[in-house]
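Exercise 7.
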Amino acid sequence: MTHSKFLTPDEVAERYQGGLSVGTLRNWRAMRIGPSFVKVGKAVLYPVEELDAWDEKNKVQCRASKRLTEQHGDHA
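Solution. The predicted structure, written as C-alpha cells, is:
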C-alpha cells in the first residue's frame, strides 16, 4: 500500500492561492462536491493524489490561436 500525503483544509486553500476558501471546502463537503477527502474523527484531510486528479479533471484545454485562424479560413 502506498503512503499518501494529506493536506488540511487550510493547506488546500493555500495550494489554490486563495481561489478556494476553507468555507467553500466546508460547503462542498456538506454537498458532497469538490475534491475527495478523508475524515478521521473530527479531522478532515485531503489526499494530495486526489487533489492532483481533481486538478486534471477540471483542467481547461485551450486551442492555439493558429488553429482558430485556420478554422476561420475554412469558413470563408
